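B., you asked whether I could sanity-check this one before it goes into the benchmark set. Here's the sequence:
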Amino acid sequence: MPHLHFKGKTFVQNHHLAVPFHELIPVADKGLSQKPSLHDNLILQGDNLKALKALLPTYQGKVKCIYIDPPYNTGNEGWAYNDNVNSPMMQSWLGKTVDREDLTRHDKWCCMMLPRLKLLRELLTEDGAIFVSIDDNEVHHLRCLMDEVFGEENFVANVVWEKKYSASSDHKGIAPLHDHIIAYRKSEIFQRNLLERSDSKDSQYKHEDAKGVFRVSDYTCNKTAEERPNLYYPITNPHTGEEVWPKKTRVWGYSKDLHDKHVSEDLIFWGVENKAKVPGFKRYRDQLKGGDGVVPATIWAHEEVGHTDSAKKELNVVFPDGGAREFVTVKPTSLITRILQIATEKDSIILDSFAGSGTTAHAVAAQNAEDGGNRRFVLIECEDYVDNVTAERVRRVMRGVPTAKDAKLKAGYGGSFSYFKLGEALEKQAILDGEHLPSFETLAGYVFFTATGEQFDGGKIDPKTGFIGESRNFDVFLLYQADVEALKNMALTLDTARALPSHSGKPKLVFAPTKYLEEETLRKLQIVFHQLPFEIYQRMDAKRR
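And here's what the prediction gave me:
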């Protein structure tokens, strides 16, 4: 498979592995939840690369659908490269706005996207999919990056979204009316859903007989008798006894044997009065593949999923005071709803790491209100407007928008969300020096995930006993307090070891500042010990144990 090469690629190829884990700090008064939780709908404030890494302990392999709307890199967006990669060249990029005159504009964009795509893939379920909005500036580079990260065999579609309903009269070239939405799956077990049938689709089914409602399709094909002599034969109208031949320039669409089968199954339509000169083929609605649904296609017209103007008007309904005027490239909720319909179930988790104005959360809340679902969203946004626009939009659509004309939006979609901000990095030296001690739950999630490679469930921890979760091979314990003096006197002793509860009967993996036990005693008690903080970066290889 061809690979895309760009400046800085060797430095960012594995940069996602070097990004440290960070604390996620709840900000209770900015959410709509009685008790902030990482298992609620989430809005995370902070750099999305760091936030994605911080989500791994809780959300690795749990996200069913990812939608992102990254910078299109038009040269007019004012984005800057800010990943602290260990490269002099890339250090010189930091904080500098990427404009159209920047000769490394595309290199910087690729360097920004690659590590994020790698972390996003880790968060997806095996049957999950990712959808990325982009335009012609970077779509070719994006396809190459996603082929590399997800595998070209996992390409799903290049959807063309009609983002405008008319061309700009002052455009000097060929006016673009579309964006792309590039879709990839995590693996081959991804299954797309069918879309609901629209009234316009159903209106085609005008006829009905004892077997149901049907539409009529052409019984001929665009071939000549000379090209397909086997399709040039007479058939009989059973109602009139008349022998009917096709035109020599347009023969039947089916062989004689298949036609006889159609006759026996009463699939030939001879008109309302049974006197048509050329028959049609009956296509029953309930015999569609997948029943009443419609197979999604790659062209999404603005009449079906909205356009940029409708998206701005939609945002203005939520912010009648003009509080979101700065957003000029916002997406319509109907566009995200289409993705939800194709790629999610009623209990799916949806992630958007370039959250912007919060359209994805708006669409998820609206879809849940529509079909009674319990989908959850995870939004990440680093810009200053995350509280006043992103989170505020979610607050308003959940509580209700009094001035809205839509009854459901006016009443509010309901629901809750927790607001978190990115905290300090869990750096080994900082813990050693006592400069920054993370909370018990934060360190528990970190050591559990890094030691086992499995998802951490914060709802199962017990700080009193030190239990932080069960992996495939261990009951895992952490003896820790966010207090330097307490840590100086904390150790795994014989009494402590014997007091550790047995949750599953598996061997115990224990993290503690130190131990006062011989290895023989640990073996008898089926305990594997690791010292904090020196071993918190060690990943246990289950196959070696």
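One thing to flag: The first helix runs from residue 9 to 12. Otherwise nothing jumped out at me.
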